[in-house]
Amino acid sequence: MRMTPALIAGKLFALALFTAGAGHAAEIKVLASNALKTALEELGPQFEKATEHKLSFTFNAAVPLKAEIEKGAVFDVAILSTPITDDLVKQGKLVGATRADVARSGAGLAVKRGAPKPDISTTEAFKRALLDAKSICYVEQGATGIYLKGLFERLGIADQLKGKTKLLPPSNPAAHAVANGEAEIGMTQISEILPYRGAELVGPLPAEIQLSSVYPAAVGTGAKEPDAAKAFIKFLTAPSAIPVLKAKGLEPG
Predict the structure, then answer these.
(1) Span between the terminal Cα atoms of the chain, in Å
(2) Which CATH class is domain 5-104+214-252?
């Protein structure tokens, strides 16, 4: 078989990762935003196979994960939103020199599969869709939820939406709630909508009000496996990870 430049590069990268872990199979504890859950669940086993390291994931909304880190949670890698990552670097909880952007994601709107899809092509259409809906939902502590609260105020519809808004805990994602019939419309990161077969993506928020979130990874200051953690970040930011990220509704960082 003829070795193409891309194939050679891929093999060399896998060899470099394996060499980094040779002689010491580490368990890497990862705290990650729900927005990257499906991507990491596919990329994780690939990394484990290439390096013989083992990954232990804890997924949640970024705000609760930040609180756990501030309370002294033991971890090796954190993959959270940019503002939270930057704040944790300032606090000395994450090593700034290891910070690398893994993925970008946009917010979208979901309805129950088979339900009519409202027009959200413009900001005015988006406002009308929310005002006409019988109920809407989002995760209160998620980055998208925090953004939406401010957005509704700016759009002048916050008071009108209060009576029909269901604020969800991180354990009940918006797309899951919509699929279960708990609300007519759910809003969250697009990557958190696609995994739910009972929910359907209407589309992204209009460009002028879109929330584009970047998710950096960084090694924890108290990491027990810093070298293995750095290897994992390198793996996530390599070209070979891009097809998986895109398939899960994300763009490379």
Answers:
(1) 33
(2) alpha beta
Domain chopping of the chain, boundaries: 5-104+214-252, 105-209
Q: With DSSP H G I counted as helix, E B as strand and the rest as coil, what are the percentages for the chain, rounded to 5?
A: 45, 25, 30
Collapse the DSSP code of 18 into the 3-class scheme (helix H, G, I; strand E, B; otherwise coil) and give the result: helix
DSSP-derived 3-state class of residue 205: coil
Give CA separation, 46 vs 14, 33, 42, in Å: 10, 19, 7
Tens digits of pLDDT across the chain (253 residues): 444 444 444 444 544 554 444 457 899 999 999 999 999 999 999 999 999 999 999 999 999 999 999 999 999 999 999 999 999 999 999 999 999 999 999 999 999 999 999 999 999 999 999 999 999 999 998 889 999 999 999 999 999 999 999 999 989 999 999 999 999 999 999 999 999 999 999 999 999 999 999 999 999 999 999 999 999 999 999 999 999 999 999 999 8
Helix/strand/coil for 211: coil
Q: In this structure, which topology does domain 105-209 adopt according to CATH? A: D-Maltodextrin-Binding Protein; domain 2 (3.40.190)
DSSP sequence for 124-190:
HHHHHHHHHSS-EEEETTSHHHHHHHHHHHHHT-HHHHHTTEEEEPTTS-HHHHHHTTS-SEEEEEG
Q: In the 8-state DSSP scheme, what is residue 45?
A: H
Tell me the pairing of strands 100-112 and 185-189. Answer: antiparallel
The closest of 114, 19, 31 to 76, measured between CA atoms, is 31
* Cα separation values, 130 from 8, 111, 138, 151, 252, Å: 51, 12, 12, 12, 30
Query: What pTM was estimated for this model as a whole?
Result: 0.84
Both tokens assigned to 223:
């990491």
